Amino acid sequence: MHLTRRIITQIVFYSGLLLMLLGTVFLLGALTGVSRLSLFWSCLFLIIGGLFAVIATKISKRAVYLFSALFFLLAGLFFFFSGLRVIPLSLSQGWPLFSVFAGLALVPAGWRHFKAIRIRYFIPALAFIFLGFILLPFSLRLVSFSFKRFMIDWWPLFMVLAGLILMVLSLGTNKKNGD
Fold it and tell me: Which residues contact 83 (CB under 8 A, 6 or more apart)?
């Protein structure tokens, strides 16, 4: 009974993977006026993310595979929707989003590793997300001044934020049971 359920689960999983690959191939053939290079990168990243997801769920339960799966899947979706012009950003404009993707992928990876939200994963995740959102207005040219001007004027803010992060990290590691 248990073996049969396991075989059925594997058949369903690999059927879903096959449908995703076939759908991607047919989608590439059906789309006109869409950058083939962008769709190629999206398919490549989605396939790599899918492979890491298989490794993270079926082979090895390590957090690094879950992080990689989520990061590549988010990046693949960005390339896919960017290629379809659903997200009107090119890679040269949207590159800070990859920092956001890294932060978003780090939270579930930390949860998987510790079975709870831990500061040693959560603070770097927030830092990656924050960094991405700080850099995004500059890459989209939403601000009238340069990043260099911003750094010259606002560098003390980064010292304050670094000090705050160090304080929160030290508070999180002072527990008796630790991370």
Answer: 34, 35, 38, 39, 42
**Residue 65 contacts residue 52 (beta carbons within 8 Å):** yes
CA gyration radius, the chain = 20
Cβ–Cβ under 8 Å, residues 109 and 122: no
**Cα 122 from chain centroid (whole Å):** 14
Q: Which residue has the higher pLDDT, 11 or 132?
A: 132
**What does the CA dihedral 29, 35, 38, 42 come to, rounded to 10 degrees?**
-30
**Whether the Cβ atoms of residue 103 and residue 126 lie closer than 8 Å to each other:** yes
Q: Which long-range contacts does 139-147 make (Cβ < 8 Å, 24+ apart)? A: 139/92, 139/93, 139/94, 139/95, 139/96, 140/89, 140/93
pTM for the whole structure = 0.69
* Cβ partners under 8 Å of residue 19, min gap 6: none
pLDDT in tens, 159-168: 887 888 778 7
Q: Do 125 and 107 contact (CB within 8 A), yes or no?
A: yes
Report angle CA 59, 128, 48 to the nearest 5 degrees: 30
Q: Report, in this order, helix, strand and coil percent for the chain, each rounded to 5.
A: 80, 0, 20
Helix-then-strand count for the chain, H and E: 7, 0
